[in-house]
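FW: tagging you since you asked about this chain on Friday. Here's the raw sequence from the shared folder, copied in full. Didn't touch anything.
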Amino acid sequence: MATINITADADDGDEFVNPPATSGSWASRGNLLYAGYNYGYEFNPGFRFLTFTPAQGDTIDTGTLTLDFYKEIGAGGAGTIHGYDTDDALSWGARLPTQVARTTATAAWPQPGSAAGVTINVQTILQEIVDRGGWVANNDIALFMLTNSATGNQHQVDDYGFGTPAKITFTFTPGAGGGGIEILRRRIEGG
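HL: got it, structure written out here
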């Protein structure tokens, strides 16, 4: 099982949109990021994970996104998790969750009912990205949430530099595309 953590503030943050606008501005906050709807804004967080090891043709057996919640405001579902449908995810900022290509596969972003963290199954999202024609091992991968509610529900999620930032955990089976060589390399290097 492998885990990739957010390792820099530029790799997570949130887009805040002032409806009826359909896109907004990016903020890498350095402490807490926001998800959901509050203060009259929609907040769409994004997470970029560097060096995702599976190769094209590999099978993603399990894949989860784990978030540590600092606080929640309101009740109800917060949104939908998407993957950034690209071969190698560039950093957020010039690219916003509302503007990037999205995977067809999605996952529900649940309201946990407490300030505890949550683990979300994103296996099908990860698989869809790895199946892209231009995907190669060790590219960067990004996940993001789009809010689906205009009511006062919001999560405050630990950002890089504060608490426990987001992480993805996954297992995979090498396919014919060379994933077995990647696993052998990781074993030799102790990864």
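FW: Residues 38 and 152 are 5 Å apart (CA to CA).
HL: agreed, and The radius of gyration is 16 Å.
FW: great, closing this out.
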